[in-house]
Amino acid sequence: MREPTWTRDRLRRLVNREIGDYRIIVVSNRQPYVHELVDGELRVSTPAGGVTTAIDPLMQECAGTWVAHGGGPGDYLAVDEKNRVMVPPDDPSYTLRLVWLTAEQQQGYYYGVSNEGLWPLCHNAFIEPTFEQADWETYTAVNRAFARQVSEEMNGGPAAVFIQDYHLALLPRFLRDLEPDVITGQFWHIPWPNHEVFRICPWQEELLDGLLGNDMLGFHIGDHCNNFMEAASRILGARVHEEYSLVYHRDDSTLVRPVPISVDFHQLETDAQTPEVAEEMERLTAEWGLQDKIVGLGIDRIDYTKGIPHRIRAINRFLERNPQYIGKVVFIQAGVMSRTNIIAYQQLADQIERLLEDVNSRFATDDWQPILYMPTDLPNRTLMALRRLARFCVVSSLHDGMNLVAKEYVASRYDHDGVLILSPFTGAALELTDALIVNPYDVERFGDSIRQAVEMPRQERQVRMANMRAVVQENNIYKWAARSLVDMMQVGRRARRPIRSA
């Protein structure tokens, strides 16, 4: 018998059943609500991303606290004397507690260790990680600061703390030292490298020890779990129980579990059918000259892990080998620049511009160019319209934890049309097997896959898309949140000592 689809209401019932007397505290670098200052007035925005989509409804049901770095220009004006503000703004139901960081702390903790060290270390994109001792000391200090503030929020009572991502790898151990009976779970949103790669990190023991302060540690796929457990065994000498995916360290155990993240399928499908999206599709078609064109799409943060230069080379090869499509296929590359103060990202932006100039100057006609580049923060309405317009969507990551762009494209196609071209180096490739799976480093086959997507008969497109939509609908974001919560609470309750009264 098929399991019922997870919904927000079903997640609410699970929360009420599972948490009992525990207080839920979520900790992340990025905040779920950002306070902007526009013309002297406070306005609230919600950053895009699966974490907020998944955890925000959970927090609204359990009235817990979300601890995050306060990075909005209006955040200081929104909080009270204890750096707290009730959210969501239209129906306040839980507490957002903000942690303030200096510019120097952000540089060392976020840009330094997190994004010049751990990010390239964990992604096979052949960018050498940078390890600076001063950055590590700042990263450690920031993680300790988060631990102290979480401990203050607990106020001596029982709590379950759900930590997000690689910015806070030391937090579980620091928090365990302050609060021995706390239940902690963490989800690592990026890949975990194999042992040979990970052991170049100067702080490998500290990172592993920090993460093994958790009761539960989640990754997107089983390979990342296996890589982590091997590292724990070979570097720390931890005992690994492979059958039960348990790692024993410091007389405690940590459950290491694959929990693939997803999207809110129902919401994306509903949004795709609004009149506003239909109007945006008409506007883009007219302004960008897309009438009678076959549209391809890439939506990415401009990052060296996403394989954007590789897809530009593939489009070049596609047009070389299939000149009959010159003037008929338009590829739209949308995305937003990020981490522009890091040299590797500056070099990537320059490389993309050179490749675009080469392809567009070579093949463009008086009224057409093959690639339209939009490296700006486009509105959600525009991104949804692009998904609906695209005959095919390319996700060519060189290495990714999951990649939600692929799932967002699938969920948006309520018409059961469209072709997904997907890198095998994404977690999504294990689920979306009806995509055209192609190695982004293989330019010849990559170009052939674009031709296959362009020429695929409508009936085949619909069958493939229907199969992928069924997978995303079943394995949605609420299922991810439910599995994470249940694993954390059940494993933590078994492992922790009896709850101390406040």
Brief characterization of the structure:
The chain has 502 residues and is of the alpha/beta class.
Descriptive report:
The chain contains 18 helices and 18 strands. With 502 residues, the chain is an alpha/beta fold. Strand 13, helix 12 and strand 14 (329-337) form a beta-alpha-beta unit. Residues 497-502 have low confidence and may be disordered.
Secondary structure: elements and pairs:
Blueprint: H1 8-18, E1 23-28, E2 34-38, E3 41-45, H2 50-62, E4 65-69, H3 75-78, E5 84-87, E6 94-99, H4 103-122, H5 133-154, E7 159-164, H6 171-178, E8 183-187, H7 195-198, H8 204-211, E9 216-219, H9 222-236, E10 239-241, E11 246-249, E12 252-258, H10 265-272, H11 275-287, E13 294-302, H12 308-321, E14 329-337, H13 343-363, E15 371-374, H14 380-389, E16 392-395, H15 404-412, E17 419-422, E18 436-437, H16 443-455, H17 458-474, H18 477-495
Parallel strand pairs: 1-4, 1-7, 4-6, 7-8, 8-9, 9-12, 13-14, 13-16, 14-15, 16-17, 17-18
Antiparallel strand pairs: 2-3, 5-6, 10-11, 11-12
SS content category: alpha/beta
Total count of strands: 18
- Major sheet attributes: 10 strands, mixed
Whole-angstrom Rg? 23 Å
Shape: globular
N/C terminus separation: 44 Å
Q: Which assembly state applies to the chains in this document?
A: single chain
Q: What topology, given as strand order, has the largest sheet?
A: 5-6-4-1-7-8-9-12-11-10
Query: What amount of the residues lies in strands?
Result: 15-25%
Residue runs with pLDDT of under 50 for 5 or more positions:
497-502
Number of helices: 18
Instruction: Compute the average pLDDT.
Output: 94
Helical amount: 40-55%
